[in-house]
Design goal:
- This protein is α+β, with helices and mostly antiparallel strands and 155 residues long.
- Helices cover 26% and strands 30% of the residues.
- It is built from three helices and eight strands, in the order αββββββββαα.
- The protein has helices at residues 4-13, 115-126, 130-147, and strands at 20-23, 38-42, 54-59, 62-71, 75-79, 89-91, 95-104, 108-111.
- Strands 1, 2, 3, 4, 5, 6, 7 and 8 form an eight-stranded antiparallel β-sheet that branches.
- A hairpin with a 3-residue loop joins strand 4 and strand 5 (75-79).
- The radius of gyration is 15 Å and the shape is globular.
- The two termini are 26 Å apart.
Length: 155
C-alpha cells in the first residue's frame, strides 16, 4: 500500500500535478498558518530552498509543513513557528515540495511576496527566541479558545 507522501512525491515527479494543494491540520505553524488553511506547494529543488521558506516533508506516513531554519550541504533543518525544538534533518529522501502560498479563513490568499509572509519570515529567521516565545503564546491562545468553548470545525 502506498502512503500519501509517496503518492504526492510520485505525482510531482511525473508532472501530473503542477501545484499540490493540501489542508493544514495542526497549530505547529501558528500564527503564520492557521489550522484548516489551504496550502499550495510546488516541486522545487531542495538545493534552492532558502532559510525561512516553508517546505512540506515526509515524517513516517504523514506530511509536515514547517519553516527552514538551518541549511547544510544537501539537507535542511526545519521548525514549526510554534515549536520549541528543531525537527529532524530533511534531505532529498523525505523532502516533497515548497509552499508558495496559502489561504487563510478561505478568504485571504497569502503568497511569498505579501507583506504578511515577509514579516513572518523575517521574524522567525532573525529572532533567535521567536519560536520559544511563540510556543508559549500559542499555548495561551489554545487554552483561552478551549475555555471559551471554541473547537476546530468538523470539516
Amino acid at each position: 500500500m502506498i502512503c500519501m507522501p509517496e503518492l504526492v512525491r510520485k505525482m510531482l515527479a511525473e508532472g501530473k500535478v503542477g501545484v499540490y494543494e493540501t489542508l493544514s491540520a495542526g497549530i505547529s505553524m501558528f500564527p503564520t498558518i492557521w489550522p484548516h488553511s489551504i496550502l499550495r506547494a510546488v516541486k522545487f529543488p531542495l538545493e534552492e530552498v532558502g532559510k525561512g521558506d516553508i517546505i512540506i516533508f515526509q515524517r513516517g506516513n504523514k506530511m509536515v509543513a514547517h519553516r527552514v531554519v538551518e541549511i547544510g550541504d544537501g539537507f535542511v533543518r526545519t521548525q514549526g513557528d510554534s515549536c520549541r525544538v528543531k525537527d529532524e534533518v530533511v534531505d532529498t529522501t523525505n523532502y516533497l515540495c515548497k509552499v508558495v502560498e496559502f489561504v487563510l479563513f478561505k478568504k485571504f490568499t497569502i503568497n511569498e511576496k505579501s507583506l504578511y509572509w515577509r514579516v513572518q519570515r523575517w521574524l522567525f529567521v532573525n529572532f533567535f527566541l521567536m519560536h520559544v516565545l511563540n510556543f508559549y503564546f500559542t499555548k495561551v491562545v489554545v487554552k483561552v479558545a478551549l475555555f471559551m468553548g471554541i473547537r476546530y470545525p468538523k470539516e
